[in-house]
Structures are given as structure tokens and as C-alpha cells.
Write a structure and sequence with these properties.
This protein is mainly alpha-helical. The protein is built from one helix and no strands.
């Protein structure tokens, strides 16, 4: 029985996106804890 590209790739992509979601949530919590602004840019002197 052949396997489609959809069935071979979508579960992997969903797992990767789930992991990325966790990283982004941790980064957001870290930025909030350290009171970083969303559009903060480092000053270049």
C-alpha cells in the first residue's frame, strides 16, 4: 500500500509546529518577566 506525501509529512510538520509553539510561549514568558517591549530595538552607538 503506497503512502501519500500528505501522510508522510503532515504529522511531522504538526509535531515540529507544536514544539515551535512551546518555544515561542517560553520566549514570550521570558520577555514579559524581564519587561521587554515587543518592538524594542537595541541602540547602536
Amino acid at each position: 500500500m503506497p503512502i501519500s506525501m500528505y501522510h508522510a509529512s503532515v504529522p511531522v510538520f504538526l509535531q515540529l509546529l507544536g514544539g515551535l509553539k512551546g518555544v515561542i510561549e517560553k520566549a514570550e514568558a521570558h520577555a514579559s518577566a524581564h519587561k521587554w517591549e515587543e518592538n524594542a530595538r537595541p541602540s547602536i552607538s
